[in-house]
Amino acid sequence: MDIAALNTKDSTDQDFMADVVEASNSQPVIVDFWAPWCGPCKQLGPVIERVVEGKKGAVKLVKINIDENPGYAGQLGVRSIPAVYAFDKGKPVDAFMGALPETQVRGFIDKLLTGTDSAQVIAEALAQAETASQAGDIGTAAQIYASVIQEDPDNVTAIAGLARCYLANGDKERASATLDMVPEAKKNDSGVKGVRMAIDMMADDAAPGEFDEALEAVTAAPDDHAKRFELAEKYAGATRYKDAIDHLLIILSAKLDWEEGKAKEKLLQVFEAAGPTDPATVEGRRRLGSLMFA
């Protein structure tokens, strides 16, 4: 899957309830049941992903490999693949079988979104908030997220986004209080977990000169991975995620399994804390993939 596919994800039977049923309460979710040996699946996959990504978050796509996850496919009566089901408000509302051409796939998704104007407006608002946040306009992003929450109090994307805005201003307490708004059933949402990781990772204000001292120690001993790891932790605690990622990748480029995977584990935690759409995460995942499959 293309790393730029922000509204497409692979899932499993174990995560089906969270990724499909619960997630469809925020916006419609399309489920693509497929298998690696299925030729028509390979034709349909890129088409449906392209159409979904073109909707800019108004609809999500979840892909289920039925060879590895036959449970929910069986419950839905899937007899042949590709099989595509649309979920809205926790229930399947439409479906089609086979590798349809792009015009028909687009029509299927447009039909799904018809009558969900409010959901589309919210999705567009969330996209605007994300754009503002990535551009560093935290105030605008926070206002948009707060407006979405007024309209949809259980919208976890908006709640997590507002919490991230508080974190960007160094306010851990208000970020934590904002996450208390998340409904119990959605506590394990990936966006919420990412913000909690960022809160847990965030350190108190660094002492004067602390970063300079740590950086000088690394500069003096560039092969001392332990010192570099400590510096990366300090950067992560200060929400300087790009700097943390850069130093952790230096360690991994020298020794991928350093300290039994300690650096890689920390790197994945930083990715989660920064969020999947943060440019530092996107670039960092690409660089990690290059190291792992070099």
Explain what the structure shows.
By secondary structure, the chain is α/β, with parallel strands linked by helices. The protein is built from 14 helices and 5 strands. Helix 7 runs parallel beside helix 9, helix 9 crosses helix 13 and helix 12 runs antiparallel to helix 13.
Amino- and carboxy-terminal Cα gap: 18 Å
How would a textbook summarize the main sheet? 5 strands, mixed
CATH 2nd-level architecture of the largest domain: 3-Layer(aba) Sandwich
Q: What fraction of the residues are assigned to beta strands by DSSP?
A: 5-15%
Please mark out the parts with pLDDT under 50 across 5 or more consecutive residues, or reply none.
none
Top CATH class of the largest domain? Alpha Beta
Provide key terms for this protein.
3 domains, single chain, 58% helix, 14 helices, Glutaredoxin, 294 residues, alpha/beta, globular, Serine Threonine Protein Phosphatase 5, Tetratricopeptide repeat
Secondary-structure blueprint:
Blueprint: E1 8-11, H1 16-22, E2 29-34, H2 39-54, E3 60-65, H3 71-75, E4 83-88, E5 91-97, H4 102-113, H5 117-134, H6 138-151, H7 156-168, H8 172-179, H9 190-201, H10 210-220, H11 225-237, H12 241-254, H13 262-274, H14 279-292
Parallel strand pairs: 1-3, 2-3
Antiparallel strand pairs: 2-4, 4-5
